[in-house]
Amino acid sequence: MKKKELVILAMLALLIISGMLITGCGKEKAADTTATTRTIVDMAGREVTLPAEIHSLATIGPGPVLNSLIFAVGEGGKIVNGLPDFARSERWKYQHKFAPNISEQPMVQTSDFQPNVEEMLKLKPDVVFTMEARGSCEQIAEVLTNAGLPTVCLVWTEPDEVKQAINMIGEVLNQETRAQEYSKYFDDTIARVSKVVDSIPEDKRPRVLHCNIQSMTAPHTITEWWVSQAGGKSVTKEVRVSENIEFSVEQLLKWDPQVIIVSSPDQVNLLCNDSRFKEVSAVKSKQVFPTPVGAHIWGNRTSEQPLMLLWAAKTFHPEAFKNLNLEEELIQFYKHFFNYSMNVEEAQEILGGGPKVDPGKKK
């Protein structure tokens, strides 16, 4: 009996050891899977499987906007594609300063933002970011995903969705802390400006027009947000029915804006030297300014939106914001978020409307 009992005990021991080995192997396999991939839900509600670590990325759609969001978490060095055709001029000089690596990289999309899948596959990015622009980003994401390129959709319709977009990018690129710091800076900037603006009477808030005087259009719905937040009254607020609206000379004269913000430095002279506008309040008082341009045009959607709010507040109410040092604000912002050491001359160039180009060339 003793011999039989020993055999049984030996068999039980072997079974236990075998079970432990199988369980251990299973755990090791699970651990390996967890370590190499992960799944996130993007802003379009799509599940996207990604590598655990992202070493390279591409952007498809409104390139300068998307790149600005990547810059804001300090990861511009991971972008492997170049700018789209419309952004290949001196106007976009700071894109190359913030991410020198994009300068010699190829375009990966058509003029209507459709991806060049063959070119993208050559670049082999670990992830692609896209955003609603001309059409659905989900359609673009499907094309790229089917080609084996994990693609994350971003959405930015409402002003503060920039925080959600950057939080999503932070999650994808393992930069959650930097993304949270950006959200805090965004909220703190609004609070700083509101603390002053809230005490300014309605009759002291100027009528403001943000426009492209060459095309006679008022671009981007987000204008209505930053003009109001900065203590102005947008003349297009009541008539805006779409992202970009057209207006006539007669309409501009009727609005009689007290401050006009144009799309580029050359448009300041274009507007002020046009005899049709000589009686407009902003022209008579020399309150016509170009919108600053850094990674992107500040008056449009860009991660630099908090800086636009500060600039607009000081432009509308210079006395109330006389202690605001915009050059220093820029230097600190770009250093902390973009990992770029900016000098005063560069800050002044951005604040003065960005790099100047020949009016005959594309902006």
Short structural description:
By secondary structure, the protein is an alpha/beta fold.
Molecular structure report:
The protein is α/β, with parallel strands linked by helices and 363 residues long. The protein folds into two domains: 38-181, Rossmann fold (3-Layer(aba) Sandwich), CATH 3.40.50; 200-351, 3-Layer(aba) Sandwich (Rossmann fold). Helix content is 44%, strand content 11%. The chain has 14 helices and eleven strands. It has helices at residues 2-36, 63-71, 93-98, 117-123, 137-146, 161-172, 176-197, 222-229, 249-255, 266-272, 281-284, 305-316, 326-338, 344-351, and strands at residues 37-41, 47-51, 57-60, 127-131, 151-154, 207-211, 217-218, 233-234, 245-246, 259-262, 288-290. The strands form four sheets. The protein has a four-stranded parallel beta sheet, sandwiched between helices. The chain has a three-stranded parallel beta sheet with strand order 3-4-5, sandwiched between helices. β1 (37-41) and β2 form a beta hairpin. α6 (161-172) packs antiparallel against α7, α7 (176-197) packs parallel to α12 (305-316) and α13 (326-338) packs across α14 (344-351). The radius of gyration is 26 Å and the shape is globular. Residues 58-320 form the Fe/B12 periplasmic-binding domain. This is Periplasmic binding protein. InterPro entries: ABC_Transporter_SBP, ABC_transptr_periplasmic_BD.
| Count of separate structural domains | 2
The largest sheet has its strands arranged as: 8-6-10-11
| General shape | globular
Indicate the CATH topology of the largest domain.
Rossmann fold
Largest sheet: 4 strands, parallel
Average of the residue pLDDT scores: 90
Along the chain, the helix and strand elements come as HEEEHHHEHEHHEEHEEHEHHEHHH
Cα end-to-end separation: 95 Å
Architecture (CATH level 2) name of the largest domain: 3-Layer(aba) Sandwich
